[in-house]
Amino acid sequence: MNNPVVSSLLPVVLLIAIGFIACRVGWIRAAASKDLSNLVFMVLTPALLFRTMSTVHVEQLNFKPVAMYFVAALLLFTSLLLQQGVSRRSAVLALTVSFSNTVMIGIPLIGLAYGKAGLVTLFTLISVHSLILLTLTTVVLETVTAHEGRRDGQGGRHHMLLTVLAAVKSGIFHPVPFPIILGLLFAQTGLSLPAVVDQPLHLLGNAFGPIALLLVGVTLTQVQIGPHLKSALALSMLKNLVLPALVTALGWAMGITGLPLTVMIITASLPVGANVFLFAQRYEVAQDLVTASMAVSTVLALVTITLVMSLVGWMT
Questions:
Q1: Tens digit of pLDDT for each residue in 59-110?
Q2: Selection from 269, 270, 271 nearest residue 296 by Cα
Q3: Among 140, 168, 225, 286, which residue's beta carbon has the most beta carbons within 10 A?
Q4: Can you tell me the mean pLDDT for 141-150?
Q5: Crossing angle (nearest 10°) for helices 107-151 and 88-96
Q6: Strand, coil or helix: what is 275?
Q7: Closest listed residue to residue 293, CA positions, set 243, 240, 214, 246
Q8: Which of 45, 169, 58 is nearest to 102 (CA)?
């Protein structure tokens, strides 16, 4: 059980399974998932992120692996966008294959496998993950929507600009990146959190992992894959295997090694993040396919993450 693949991935799988079973037998109502989601994202996540980053100095951060990760993600995003033809649907599907579940699954997995050092690397990525990928997708979607509006004789340029600015604002003032930024700013002061503040944050942070993974299991009970299985499986393979392969190749090309490369590769292999569905819902395109892809990639991740972690351990 000292193998990091077993010791870190098995608890993740078991907690997701417990959440799934608990919802199926009625111990957790599906309707309660909204409350659980709010608890995770509005309370537990900020506590964990702020406390972890409150002792990290900027000079300790390594942004080279993060830059490499986004080059790989943008290559895959652009390739699918062009291959499918630029449209609202292709933009949402491009986000599907490039946007990882870095919070609910990534944080517990990396924390168990690689400890605080791994989390600092992951949090550096998370601090700009949504800001870059979601803002890019917003720009593409609003550009396409504005083009469609002009083609149909409707305005759209000013609306697009306001929406993009709102996306940038949301990418910063968000329960995930904002506490990371605040924690880093606090760390630069050289101060330490008083025990009366640090201890509650510590307890809340410890609660994040199990509750977030239970929530993933609960969410899986609400998905109907149906006729979208084949397409969802194809998108999931791109997300879970092709993206980490791109990250690995670029990492080697850029001379990145060790823990930073390991964390980036495993993060790339994570299943599709929940924010993708919000875009599909907002722009009323590919909603069923995106939902199915999130479920398929999460289940498939039990195999693909095991494979990726084993290969990474063998290579490093």
A1: 777 889 999 999 999 999 999 999 999 899 999 999 999 999 998 899 999 9
A2: 271
A3: 286
A4: 73
A5: 170
A6: helix
A7: 240
A8: 45
